Amino acid sequence: MKIIFRIVATAALVIIASCGKDYSSSMSEEIGPQVVNQETIPLAADTVSDNVIIKGGTKEEGMPPTPNEMISLDIGDSGKAAFLNEGFEVRLSSDSDVIGAYLQFKDKDGAVSKSYYDIDLSANGLSKKAVDLQKAYGFFSGNATAQTAKNDNEFILDVDFNSTVEPGTFCYLVCVYDGNGNISAPEEVCGTVENWGGNVDLVGTWDFTKTEHTEEGVTETVLVGENDCNELSLPCQVQELKFDSCIITESISFTLTADGAFTYEYKIIAVRRAYKKWLGIGKRARYPKTEVWIGYT
Asked: What's the CA gap between 57 and 93, in Å, rounded?
């Protein structure tokens, strides 16, 4: 649900980490303090609870069921960063085959919201198994840009905000449950709903210069204009399908303004060559395909 936001955010991080900056002096001195002050205001638990959109979630009045703590829950450092009109994500990992989660918001002073959400995790976000299936059928190529689960018992809990939720601080309790009625101990997370813009250090134009891939301690650097290739294969009953996927990044430019608006321009050439090897026959045919993507957002 946040696909566009994820792509833009990932592109910004990649470009900022790998390129030079053309500085701009158009930042207003008043924007920074206003945004920072607003983001430190605590949000009421009921206000947040009444204005979230959770796919697969059912809003229930009262308190969630009491945990028996027979299964585990690990969320790491996830779920602390939230964005205005977007929401937040929490990485849920357990030692059990969990099917759902309970989510309840909390005030800074400890008071919990009058309602909670019972969330069907399979309907909410991507599990590790779903991601593997999508990769096998080609929905992701190369390195996936969206945040995805890593383990079979891991899910990404996706929570959206509507336009009523303002910048500020908030807390929530989250726990998971399995099909046998076991409920993990709740994890408490406090985060900040961040506004857009306000960081003078990011204002300007960032130009992409290189990509770095690290695998088994070895780092490979691909510069602008160079081929970045991956070989994929898909075994079938009577034949083996192999794919060579190469991308040439000719240019990527990301411009950020003081109010958080952006311009994203890119020129990428994608070369995909697929060939099939008939098992037992040894006959091979090639089908080259070249695509040029030129974009402006």
From this structure: 18
Distance separating alpha carbons of residues 206 and 18, to the nearest angstrom: 9
- The reply to whether 33 falls in a domain is yes
Co-location of 183 and 234 in the same domain: no
Phi, psi of 61 (to 5 degrees): -85, 150
Is the Cα dihedral 150, 55, 259, 11 positive or negative?
positive
Residue ending a domain, choose from 171, 194, 217: 194
Provide the number of structural domains found in the chain. 2
Q: Do residues 35 and 150 touch, judged by C-beta distance below 8 A?
A: no
* pTM of full prediction above 0.70: no
CB-based contact 118:176 (threshold 8 Å): no
Return the SS3 of 217. coil
Domain for residue 81, yes or no?
yes
Q: Is 200 helix (H, G, I), strand (E, B) or coil?
A: helix
| CA–CA gap between residue 53 and residue 132 (Å, rounded) | 26
Does residue 4 sit within a domain?
A: no
**Whole-Å CA distances, 70 to 100, 182, 183:** 15, 6, 6
Same domain (yes/no): 208, 95: no
Residue range(s) defining the domain that contains residue 254: 200-296
pLDDT digit string, tens, across residues 27-84: 334 444 444 468 899 999 999 999 999 999 999 999 999 999 999 999 999 999 999 9
Question: Which position has the token pair 């807390």?
Answer: 171
Whether the Cβ atoms of residue 62 and residue 115 lie closer than 8 Å to each other:
yes
Q: Residue 39 in contact with residue 195, Cβ under 8 Å?
A: yes
